[in-house]
Structure formats: structure tokens, C-alpha cells
């Protein structure tokens, strides 16, 4: 009986690197695809801070919609380090195959299929985790996509549609048989959304049943939890989603702990400020003066929400409407905190 990943002793075995097709992934910690979050600036930052692989925001398989501003930015991978992993979402095998081919033409080196998103607007279109209810359609999509491209295809799923229908193991075996190169599994069903706690028993069963790399996802918020989840499930890597919002250094913390068994110290306020300023600059550069300022607001909110006395700053920051004012505001707020800390010491 494996120890529960929320309790018990730390393991002694350390994870090794793994491969997705021809790509060797050195660090067993992956940035999960998150709509509205894992854009090119954030992906690049997370990679610099230790992520072994980063996955893009999901892109619709309907290529007729790709001329929208949102799709254009999601399809922009200029200057990114490889391997470039692009997630596609949809429910029609032919459209999914076409979207995969077109993304490869645009530079994608790994195609990731979304069958894990629980959002209603995705599921009502028979995409995302809604697909788990139709195993025949799952097989048709996987076969169509894998056969349409020469690059590795990966898949992200949940443990099932609902607690009474956990068919993640069946889908995992199907995916391996149809040529999928790696599998990410979120430890909740679609019906669970993000409520309750992720369960890792199903992920452990999947790992034991397939030979392709499996990534464990769900409620992994720090290095010790990552280590326990890997030990419990036997997964090749952990996939980090919401825990990376405003905390992109979580990847180096986890990678370092997995490699050495030692915890890295929390980043200093000076370093958090510098990371945030760099992130701000890249957001402004990538999205432009108007959208960059708007999108920066949620990211800054995530960075400072865990710091004391940040509520007033966040309210004020959200009223700023130009890049220069945002930069100045962040610098001034952190400088006051850093000076206050130095005096206290």
C-alpha cells in the first residue's frame, strides 16, 4: 500500500529525465496549459525559472477563428525555446487533425490534445473533458491527430467524467495503443471541477498500466507535495497549474528539491520585484500598450496577494492605465516594503 501523498515519509528514489518522442525533458516539472495564463511571456518566464516543459494555452481546432486577436496571440511562438508544445481543443476528428497539421506548420514540435478542461463553455461544445463520455469519439480524435502529424502527440485528461465514471484508465490504455507519446492526468473528474481534493489512486493505476510517461496534476502546491505525489503515483513528472500563478519560481523550487532533497529559500523581495518587473515588460511588449496593461493587472494581483497589506496596492494598481505608471507603482511599493524590512532587521 502506497503512503498517501498528503502524509507519510519522504521517498528516497529521485526521478530521472524522460522523453517525449525525440525530446529529452530534463526537469520532471511541467507548466500546465491554462487559458488566459500560459501565454508566451509566462511560458518563457517559467522555463527560465526551472520548468522542464511548458504548454501553450489551448487553441480552438476551428481554424476559421484563428484570425481573432486572442487566437493570434495564442499561436505566437516567435523566439520560444523548444520543444514548443501547443494544445488544441475540439470535438471533430477532422478539424482536430487539420489544426494539428497547421500548428506544426507554424512551428509546434509537440501537439497536446485537451480532454481535461472542465469549463462549461468548452464542455458544451463536446470538447475538453466532455469527450471522456464518448470513448469512441476519443479514439477517433486520437487516431486522426496522431496519424496527421510527424511530431509527438500528448494528451491531457481527467480521471473521468464523474466519480461514478472514472474511465481514465481505459482512455489511457487507448491513448497508448493509438500512438500518444505522453499523458497528463488531473486527479479530479469533470464533475468535480476544482472542488474537493485531487485523488491520485487513479493516476497510480494508469502509471502501472501504461509504458508512456504520465504526468500527475492537481493540488501540487510545493516541492514536498510534488515529491510525495511522484512517489505515490510513480509518475514521470508533476504538472503545475494554478500554483504557478504569481509564483513562477515554484518550478526551480520543485526541481531543486527533487534533485537534492533540500528546500530552496523563498525568493527575496528584491528578486520577486525583479521577476515581476521583467514579466510586466514582456506583457507590455507582447500585447501592446492597451491589452498589455489590462492583462498585467491579474498577474500583478497573483504576485502580491500572499504579501501582507497588499489590498490597497492592488486596488490602486488596477486603476492605472499605462505601462509606465504600472512599472513605477510596482517599484515604489516594493521599495517601501524592502526599506521597511531593512529597518526592522
TrEMBL record:
It catalyses: a 5,6-dihydrouridine in tRNA + NAD(+) = a uridine in tRNA + NADH + H(+); a 5,6-dihydrouridine in tRNA + NADP(+) = a uridine in tRNA + NADPH + H(+). Pfam families: Dus. It comes from the Bacteria. CDD domains: DUS_like_FMN. Its EC number is 1.3.1.-. Its cofactor is FMN. Residues 30-334 form the DUS-like FMN-binding domain. Keywords: Flavoprotein, FMN, NADP, Oxidoreductase, RNA-binding, tRNA processing, tRNA-binding. Catalyzes the synthesis of 5,6-dihydrouridine (D), a modified base found in the D-loop of most tRNAs, via the reduction of the C5-C6 double bond in target uridines. This is tRNA-dihydrouridine synthase B. It comes from Microbulbifer harenosus. The lineage of its organism: Bacteria, Pseudomonadati, Pseudomonadota, Gammaproteobacteria, Cellvibrionales. The gene is dusB.
